[in-house]
């Protein structure tokens, strides 16, 4: 009974934080799909977007374990809001 109570308390208080074993896996093609389609001259090419995303993905893979778990979880969750997630967005968040 005591153990069940402690488990309930820890779950309801948010003390358990999911720990990602490695950097997230995003679909770079989906992230870069609409680059340059607005026709307003802002932004770059799809190829440049893909290159930036691949560079950010590689950097995340190299540095992932050095970032605090809570910050990793927060930045990945934020990157998933409002459209396809971006490695560039995650690494920018983590380095702020």
Task: List the defining traits of the structure above.
single chain, 96 residues, mainly alpha, 5 helices, globular, disordered N terminus
Describe what this molecule looks like in 3D:
By secondary structure, the chain is mainly α. It has one domain. Helices cover about 55% and strands about 0% of the residues. It is built from 5 helices and no strands. Helix 3 (about 45-65) packs across helix 5 and helix 4 (about 70-80) packs antiparallel against helix 5. The protein is globular and about 35 Å long. Residues about 1-15 have low confidence and may be disordered.
Strand content is under 5%
Q: List the total number of helices.
A: 5
Largest sheet: none
Number of domains: 1
Residue runs with pLDDT of under 50 for 5 or more positions: 1-17
Detail the topology: elements first, then pairings:
Elements: H1 2-12, H2 28-32, H3 46-63, H4 69-79, H5 87-95
Concise structural overview:
The chain is an all-alpha fold. 56% of the residues lie in helices and 0% in strands.
């Amino acid at each position: 009974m005591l153990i069940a109570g402690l488990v309930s308390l820890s779950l309801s208080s948010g003390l358990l934080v999911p720990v990602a074993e490695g950097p997230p896996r995003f679909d770079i093609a989906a992230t870069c799909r609409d680059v340059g389609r607005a026709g307003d001259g802002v932004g770059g090419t799809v190829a440049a977007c893909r290159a930036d995303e691949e560079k950010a993905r590689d950097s995340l893979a190299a540095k992932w374990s050095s970032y605090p778990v809570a910050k990793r979880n927060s930045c990945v969750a934020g990157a998933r809001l409002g459209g396809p997630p971006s490695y560039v967005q995650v690494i920018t968040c983590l380095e702020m």
